[in-house]
Write a structure and sequence with these properties.
Serine Threonine Protein Phosphatase 5, Tetratricopeptide repeat
Length: 164
């Protein structure tokens, strides 16, 4: 019975942690190391529980055999989540590529398209190409010198300065 409870608690912990992480992220793979920590922590808890049961009851081999079931399940879930995060990142990068091609096409058709230049600036910022993002945003500020655009340009320049 304790193994079933521990097994269910492991699944519940993974689900809750996944929901908490996804509340604060925007498609990054920053949650992957946390799953590794969760996996290691749950395995450690299971080892301690089974060791305690073995010491107090003397039924060590039976419980060590049962230990492999949830440990194997957690390992499979960790590998599955790792593959899922990798696939999500590839989809996100493909979407950025498509957005960039669309924005570049709109800029080639209308060089004064501030919306396209703004989108290119945002894409470059997401990719970490802050120098390109600043150049696009400077062109946007020349076309549409609004307060919002100037603040965005200032933020980009500040971010670029922090990297240097």
């Amino acid at each position: 019975m304790p193994i079933i409870i521990l097994f269910l608690l492991s699944f519940a912990a993974i689900f809750v942690l996944d929901r908490i992480i996804k509340m604060g992220t925007r498609g990054s793979d920053s949650d992957l190391p946390q799953y590794g920590i969760l996996f290691a922590g749950l395995i450690l808890i299971e080892i301690v529980v089974f060791f305690a049961v073995a010491v107090f009851t003397g039924v060590a081999f039976f419980f060590w055999g049962l230990f492999l079931v949830p440990a194997g399940t957690l390992a499979v879930l960790y590998v599955w989540r790792s593959c899922q995060v990798k696939a999500e990142k590839e989809i996100y990068i493909a979407m950025l590529d498509k957005d960039e091609r669309t924005a570049l096409r709109s800029i080639s058709q209308d060089p004064l398209n501030a919306a396209g230049l703004t989108r290119l600036s945002e894409i470059c910022e997401v990719r970490g190409q802050l120098d390109r993002a600043v150049k696009y945003m400077e062109r946007v500020c020349d076309l549409e010198p609004t307060e919002r655009n100037r603040w965005k340009l200032k933020d980009l320049r500040d971010s670029e300065g922090k990297l240097l």
